[in-house]
Input
Amino acid sequence: MDFLAVWLGKLVLVALRLVGRRGNALPGLVVEKLFPGYLRRAMSRLSEGVVVVTGTNGKTTTTKMVATILTQKYRVLTNDTGSNFVRGAITTAIEHSSWTGRLPYDVAVFELDEAWAVRFADQVPPRRALLLNVMRDQLDRFGEIDTTARLLGRVAAATTRDVVLNRDDPRVSALAVQCTATVSYFGVAPELRAAFPNDDELYGGPLFAGTAPAIAELRGLPRTGQPLTRLRVGDLDATVELRASGPHNAQNAAGAAALGLVAGLRAGEVVAGLREVQPAFGRGQSFDVQGRRLDLHLVKNPAGFRQSLKILEQLRPRSIVIAINDDYADGRDVSWLWDVDFSLLSGLAAMVETSGTRAADMALRLKYDDLLVQRVEPDLEKAVRSAVESVGADPAAGPDVVVFSTYTAMWALHAILLRIGRPS
Amino acid sequence: MLTLIHLYPREMNIYGDTGNIRVLARRLAWRGIEACVEPVTVGGPMPTAADIVLGGGGQDAAQGEIGADFVARASTLRAMADDGVVFLAICGSYQLLGHEFVTQEGVRIPGVGVLDVTTHGSPTRLIGNNHVDTADAGRLVGYENHSGLTTLGSGVRPLGRTESGRGNNGSDRTEGAVRDNVFGTYLHGPVLAKSPRFADELLRRALARHGHSQELEPLDDSLAEQAAAVAVGRPR
Output
C-alpha cells in the first residue's frame, strides 16, 4: 500500500514543481491525511532508525552537521530545507523514495521544531534525539519557555536508544530523569561557559554549571586571525575550521559530534564529518551582489540574535541590514527585539538600515540604544540594493554587507539575492 | 533626578518589558534629566526615594518565586501608592498588584492589594497585537499574552478600552486599571516604546510630585508613531 502513498505524494510534488512552487509541505500533508501510517512504516525500515534534532536555536545548522557526520558511515536521509514540520519529513521521505516505495537509506535525520517534534515522536519513536537548548522564542505560539521544556521532555521520553542533552542548559539537562534511553551529554568547557548566557543568566541569574561529563566538548573558539575551533570528541582532541560561523554553531558542533559518537562513529570519523559541513540555508550563506560580498544570517529570538551579533566583531562589515518580519512563522510579537543589546553596533562604524514589515519597530529599538539608523525601508529588495550601493567593493576584507533577517524575510531575501546576485 | 525602581529584574523580564525602563531613562536623558535605576531583588532592600516603580511579566514559575517576597512588601507598596508614587505594572506584576490570583484549580495566591482587581486563571491564553484608547495618554500600542482574566473593582477605573484585542478578561472590552498614579496593564511591546505619550505622562506625573509642573520638552517621536501605525495595521 505504501507505494500508493509514494506515488500520490510524488505526483503532488511533480505538479507543484510544474507550477513553480517549492512544495515542502503539501505532498506530506496529502499523504499524512490519506495514509496516516506511512511515515512510521517507512521509517521503521531504516536500519539505524530516525535521529531527531530539536531545541530553540541552531536546529537547521546542527541537523546539517549531524547529517554530514553520519554520512561518513551511513546513507543519510535528511530534511535540509528548514521545513521542520511532520509533513516536511513526510515530503522528504516521499521525494527520496523510489517509485516502488523503497527508501535506500540507513538513517533519517530530521530537524523538527519543539511542538512538531512531539507530534512526530508520537507517530515515530526516534531511535536517537539531540536536544540543543530552550530559549525564548515565539512565545506567542508556545506560551511559555517552561512549556517548551516540557515539549522537549516528551521527545526525550519517547526516544528509544540514545538521548544527547546539552549539559549547560539547565532546562535541557534536567530532562535526563525522563529518559528511558541512554543519556549522553555535550557541553562547552567551563572557562567558555560565560560566552553562552541563557535568558535567565542575561538578567542576572546565577551562571548554571552542569557537572555531567560530556562525551563531546567545545574547548576553544575561533578568534580574529585564528579561525580554528577546538573540540574534544570522545578521547580525541581536534581542531576544525567550521564553515558555519559564530560561537553558537561551535557549541552545537559539540552536540552534533556527541550524536555521531552514540550513533557508532569513531571520533576520527566524526571530526572528518564536521570538517565537511557547509553553511545551511540562510545561516551565514554568502552572496556576490554587484561585486560586493553579502552574508545572510537568520535571527529568530533574543539569544540567537545576541549570538549572531557577536559575529560582527570578527567580520567588521561596512553596512548592516536588519530585516524584521512579523508573519506567523516569524512570530507576531516583536517585543523580543528589546531583549537584545545592540550597543555593540555603535563601535563598528557601519551603516545601518532596517527593513521588513517591522522596519520602523527595529529602527525604534535601535534609537533607544542611541544608534542612528540611516534608512528605514520596509521593502526588502530596495533595502538590500541601497546597502550594496552604499559600500564600495573590498575583496581583501570580509563581507561588505551583513544582513540579519527573520524567517520569512530570509526566504524572500534569498530569492531576491539569487535574482540580483549569485551565491559565492 | 528621578529614581526608577525595577521590580525583580531577574524573575520578571519576559517579552521585553525591561524595555519600558530603557524608554523612560532615555527620554529623561534626552531632556537632560538624570535617572537612576534601582533593582529590587527577592530579599533585597527597597529604596525609599522611589519616583517610578516598574514591574514586568514573568513565567508562571517566576511569579511563584517572587510572590511571597512581593506580598511581604505589601504595606510599603500601598503606602508608596497612597503617596503618589508612579507605578507601571505589566501582566504578572499587574496581577500581583491586585487582591489575589485564583488559579484554575482554585488555589488563591494573595497579591498586595494596591489595585482593586482580582484575577482568575483560565485555560486559554489571550494572545495578539492590541491597541487601546485611553483618556490619560491617547492610543497605547502593544501586544497581549496572558491567561489570567482580570476583573476590576470600584476602587479602580479601566486604563482604556480595546476594540482590537481581548483586554483584561476578554469580555468587557476594558484593558488595564488605574488608581491615582498606579497603572496596571497587560500590554507588552514594551508598551512605552510605541506609546510615547504614555511614557511622558508617567514622567510628567513623577516630576509633578517634585513640584516641577512645566511641560516636558517635546521629542521627535516620528519613528514611534510610524511603528505604532504599522503595528495597528498588522493581523492579530
